[in-house]
Amino acid sequence: MKKMLIAGNWKMNTNAYEASELAKAIVTGTMNEKMNTKILICPPFINIPAVSEIVSTGQVMLGAQNCFSQPSGAYTGEISIPMLQYYKCDYIIIGHSERRQYFHETNETVNIKLKAIINSNLNAIVCIGESLEERQNGQTFAVLEKQIKEGLMNVDSSFASQIVIAYEPIWAIGTGMSANTEQVQEAHSFIREQLKVLFGDKANDMIIQYGGSVKPENALSILELPDVNGALIGGASLKADSFLSIIKIANELLSD
Ligand code: PEP
Description:
Layout: E1 5-9, H1 16-29, E2 38-42, H2 48-55, E3 60-64, H3 81-86, E4 91-94, H4 97-102, H5 107-119, E5 123-128, H6 132-136, H7 140-151, E6 163-167, H8 181-199, E7 207-211, H9 216-223, E8 230-233, H10 240-255
Parallel strand pairs: 1-2, 1-8, 2-3, 3-4, 4-5, 5-6, 6-7, 7-8
Helix pairs in contact: 1-2, 1-10, 5-7, 7-8, 9-10
The structure holds phosphoenolpyruvate (PEP).
């Protein structure tokens, strides 16, 4: 059976009050229905304690948008995995294109963080994706292959179930311009083949999310693609109504 993870990446949005209200609306909106899809929200670090209490009563999981690889120590300004575990975070996003672009995240740092996350029994969402220039130059598959090979280097297949890949073409993030369904399926199928090289048959059960301007209007056409297992959602996850609409679409697809 197809698996689905619908995740909201709130980025650097919401103050503590707004985060609590948004989390409450999502928890309440998913409370009374059997959820076939997994649901995740990733608030800014500072709002994780408040949101942690709110999600504890519902079917919504909590995640972080980044972490540092060391468990503690003299790393001013960083947040460790044990700190996130204290608040019952289940997932940590790593390698988001905004972190690669503005904060020097590389495939190498992604690999170090990934190993720290999976060794701590948490799940990682590893973001990959090509720029517009790379796509126009026909380099999409080469970029994805390199990001997977280097980002997941020396990771044992026993950890496959703790790794989610989010395919996020950079040109589609926050632009309102989603990749078309052929582009999405082609990239996801390529990613799954690369994962099979690393993890064998376990790759068939791995979650590969699409991210890039997913909204209620285009969610069905993307989520129903064979190699798409959910979405990583930025803008549309900041409004409870639109996020809940996408969750409903995913849930109905899985109940067919
Ligand atoms: C994201 O933040 O990962 C993202 C895909 O953003 P948006 O949905 O706004 O394009």
